[in-house]
Amino acid sequence: MILSIDIGIKNLSICLIASDGSIRDWDILDLTNTTIHSCNYCMKHKRCTSRASYTVAGKMYYCNRHITKCIPSIRIAPPEYYSLLKKPSLMKTKKLNHMFDLNISVEELTNHVYQHCATKVIQPVSANALDLIQIGKTLSVTLTRRLSCINDIDTVLIENQISTIASRMKCVQGMVAQFFIEKAIYNILFISSINKLKMYDVPKKTYKERKASGIHVVRGLLENSMNHTWLSVFNTHKKKDDLADSYLQALWFIHTKT
């Protein structure tokens, strides 16, 4: 099988294609290792889907608007809670204990607030803020878990990064290659992004045109092929452009190889 990879940190696209051309796996992997939660508040006819800003014990999530509707049944954690987390002290501990009518240790107190109050959701770290060691660790774990059929992969295609303008992405490219080398998969090719749309007469002068054309081409290909069952997955995905890139890269390779 051929595994085609479009390099990214938050949006690393993989497309696994069998020898008969059928798609076996196709998805976007997030190497930032963060989860974005949606608000759980139920309105009259539907559930709110806004991004959550608060959580109660990591089980229920609420946006800024709907957390206020839950007061007083849900208590919002006071500023003293975050101050204690940031820099514990005896004075802060006593003050927060008094607010909750408790007399417990710092660890027990902060856990009590987290379990019973609405605390702020930790915001995801941007891809640029992550260190390369953490990215490498997440990459290894993520690919190992996802590629259960790794022994059936004989060719890996990786989008080639231009090191002068994308040094971090070039490092990720090297990490991906090394991952497969350590799995004894040595047929690894770095593919120029220019090749993806070479076979199609579509607008591709600018970055925006190439992205839009890629989505258009892939949608047409899926509608008229054995892979039509993947059309709904593609149409409903937020990162259609990255999905398209990994798929088109694989198709170009198959076409040129034959």
Q: How would you sum up this structure, described in words?
A:
It holds the Pfam family Pox_A22. One of its GO terms (biological process) is DNA repair. InterPro entries: HJ-resolvase_A22, RNaseH-like_sf, RNaseH_sf. One of its GO terms (molecular function) is magnesium ion binding. Keywords: Hydrolase. By secondary structure, the protein is α/β, with parallel strands linked by helices. It has 2 domains: 2-34 and 127-257, Ribonuclease H-like superfamily/Ribonuclease H (Nucleotidyltransferase, domain 5); 54-120, no CATH class. Helices cover 40% and strands 15% of the residues. The protein contains 9 helices and 9 strands. The chain has helices at residues 64-67, 79-86, 90-99, 106-116, 132-146, 167-181, 207-223, 231-236, 240-257, and strands at residues 2-6, 12-17, 23-29, 54-56, 60-62, 75-76, 117-120, 155-159, 188-191. The strands form 2 sheets. It has a 5-stranded mixed beta sheet with strand order 3-2-1-8-9. It has a 4-stranded mixed beta sheet with strand order 5-4-7-6. A hairpin with a 3-residue loop joins strand 4 and strand 5 (60-62). The protein is elongated. 25% of the residues are buried.
